[in-house]
């Protein structure tokens, strides 16, 4: 989830005066508790991490989310209907982590989904791309309107068509994860988006985005891939493709539970064995 990077994120103090070290720590703790709870359920589906409508809050996060504060410490909290309901996708940690300095969130949020949840590799941006600030758009334009300049640019459009429409689904959350119906300029927020490459690409809002991801075989395989990378301390190679397919198959046959994923991973040859380099003479 790249949460370690949250330590280095410093949202604009004028735009987000409520953000401080205490809130940052609560954001990270929420996501840690959320995943710990999810993995501890014997019959739970790990892919609920993109559709769960409940999380954990303390008094600090309760203020940000607009929900009742627990009497003490942390408590499980079902989030308001129609606002979140997309697991970690609508948690303040991820939403803050994916807010760039210019405040145009859809790019980084779409990039996170593509790289961390779908395990897709994106090409680097072309050189000499003008910043969004240089685009001829009104200062009060919505992020969707601002980003249209890049989507219409042939040099940029390929990637931005993959990223921006995913990020639009999380547009109702500001740079530190607070819910909003209008943007900073009073424009109504349009949270419709699409995931290019999916059989049913279109969605409206975070809950439908989470539903699309949860049902995608690419996400299941990516979860298996991410644990494979962690367990073997390396990036997968082409030779590992069939092995990860088998891990994912066992994961899915096991109800996509955490236990099934861990067992399939640690039983794999890649985890239990290592290659011994051959000597110059060819002998093992």
Could you walk me through the main structural features you see in this protein, from its secondary elements to its overall organization?
This protein has helices at residues 21-40, 59-65, 92-97, 106-117, 143-151, 154-167, 205-214, 217-232, 241-253, 258-266, 269-272, and strands at residues 54-57, 75-78, 192-194, 202-204. The protein is 42% helix and 5% strand. A two-stranded antiparallel sheet has the order 1-2. The model has no long low-confidence stretch (mean pLDDT 89). It is globular. The protein contains 11 helices and 4 strands. The chain is mainly alpha-helical and 284 residues long.
- Describe the main β-sheet briefly: 2 strands, antiparallel
- What is the CA–CA distance across the termini? 39 Å
How do the strands line up in the largest sheet?
A: 1-2
* Rg (CA only): 21 Å
- Helical residues, percent: 40-55%
What is the total number of structural domains? 2
Overall number of strands: 4
- Average of pLDDT: 89
Write down the overall geometry.
globular
Succession of helices and strands: HEHEHHHHEEHHHHH
Hey, roughly how much beta strand do the residues contain? under 5%
Number of helices: 11
């Amino acid at each position: 989830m790249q949460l370690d990077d949250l330590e280095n994120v410093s949202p604009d103090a004028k735009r987000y005066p409520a953000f401080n070290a205490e809130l940052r720590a609560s954001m990270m703790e929420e996501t840690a508790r959320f995943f710990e709870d999810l993995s501890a359920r014997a019959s739970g589906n790990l892919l609920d991490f993109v559709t769960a409508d409940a999380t954990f809050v303390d008094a600090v996060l309760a203020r940000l989310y607009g929900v009742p504060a627990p009497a003490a410490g942390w408590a499980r909290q079902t989030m308001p209907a129609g606002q979140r309901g997309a697991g970690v996708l609508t948690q303040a940690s991820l939403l803050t982590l994916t807010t760039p300095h210019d405040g145009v969130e859809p790019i980084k949020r779409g990039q996170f989904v593509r790289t961390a949840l779908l395990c897709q590799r994106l090409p680097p941006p072309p050189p000499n791309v003008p910043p969004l600030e240089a685009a001829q758009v009104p200062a009060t334009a919505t992020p969707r309107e601002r980003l249209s300049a890049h989507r219409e640019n042939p040099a940029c459009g390929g990637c931005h068509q993959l990223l921006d429409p995913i990020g639009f689904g999380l547009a109702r959350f500001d740079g530190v994860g607070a819910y909003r119906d209008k943007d900073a300029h009073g424009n109504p927020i349009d949270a419709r988006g699409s995931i290019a490459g999916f059989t049913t690409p279109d969605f409206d809002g975070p809950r439908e985005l989470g539903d699309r991801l949860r049902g995608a075989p690419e996400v299941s395989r990516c979860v298996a891939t991410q644990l494979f990378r962690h367990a073997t301390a390396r990036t997968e190679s082409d030779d590992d493709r069939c092995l990860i397919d088998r891990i994912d198959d066992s994961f899915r046959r096991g109800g996509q539970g955490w236990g099934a994923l861990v067992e399939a991973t640690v039983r794999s040859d890649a985890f239990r064995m290592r290659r011994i380099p051959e000597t110059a003479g060819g002998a093992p």
